[in-house]
């Protein structure tokens, strides 16, 4: 076993040196990899602004992400649950192994506190409770996980257990992800404010039905941590799974934001620190040819806020005065907050510390509307346009009828509308009025075929 570890360490060091020399996957840098730590099973460094992979090793090898899987659980939840959702703890959720809060079955928690428990304390019981709330059961949530991963562009993920558990105790055998998938997930999570704001918070306290819970972030690289690192502002730790420990970390220096992911390492912090330095020392135009897929996260609260503000713009009514009726007959007042969300880097946490974000991307709005918002807005625009066009058509018809009424009234005043068939008709009293539906003839006139030879007409027979 010792010989195998030494061989793996030597091969990994040789790979890093060779890549540095040829500039293929690891560009030239002054940063040195840890000398006293075995190389991770896989790692990746990404420029979060452009999505370019700056350097990687075994980027697409599927490994057990352990607690990193909770980030995906939180993302699926905030995409589908409203901000005021309540998360109920089931017997199954309460029975999960540590790390956990130790909640009791039947307790209910707000969505925000639940997300905090996942991100700071990596609580397994709250992960299961959240999954059951969103998907109805674990199988239903598993389907949502897979659909979300496909939409994000995660190519190597096989998700399942919402807490990232592995082995016989895990649902569906537990999840597997590559470091590439983890980087995709973290980049999306940076744009989801309900998740991102907890990635850089050191502590959080809240009251439950039977106890007060005090959470402490496990990420020691954050400001104030034992391994505080310059610029680090998130993201999530992972316990020791079958493949070793893991860590996803984000850091901002100047206008650069770097994502570093380590899986299967015996010293995740040493390697994460090295990878961050490697990322910042690498020009964003260099690195590999691989790029992360575009961000696709769509937070429900942001979609609802965009919808309400658009409706307020169309109707001219201020926010907070619009109401909608649900199927149950309950009137709901939409959000009354502004759509322009302060970028997460400018928002302070409950401790006064800045939360994680990607300041290099100007589109960071706490959760992109995504394609769903675009389709919704397009539908509303088309519907409003059709309504306006229909109203204009009705107005034109009304104006035409009013004009005809005025013309007929004028003719009646001039006496040029004789009564024919009990109605006023235009024309004269002789001949066939243009609007009449009958042909006039004298009572003593012969059949129509003999009109030409009959001398009873005053002038010409009617035509």
Oligomer: single chain
| Helix and strand sequence | HEEHEHEHHHHHEEEEEHHEEHEE
Determine the CATH superfamily of the domain at 40-281.
DD-peptidase/beta-lactamase superfamily
Query: Level of helix content?
Result: 25-40%
- The geometry reads as elongated
The neighbouring-strand order within the major sheet is 2-1-9-8-7
| CATH class category of the domain at 40-281 | Alpha Beta
Within the CATH hierarchy, at the fold level, what is the topology of the domain at 40-281? Beta-lactamase
- The assigned CATH architecture of the domain at 40-281 is 3-Layer(aba) Sandwich
Largest sheet: 5 strands, antiparallel
Task: Tell me the distance between the termini.
Answer: 117 Å
Number of helices: 11
Computed CA radius of gyration, to the nearest angstrom: 36 Å
Strand content: 5-15%
Total number of strands? 13
Q: Report the uncertain regions.
A: 1-30, 322-369, 427-436
Overall mean pLDDT stands at 76
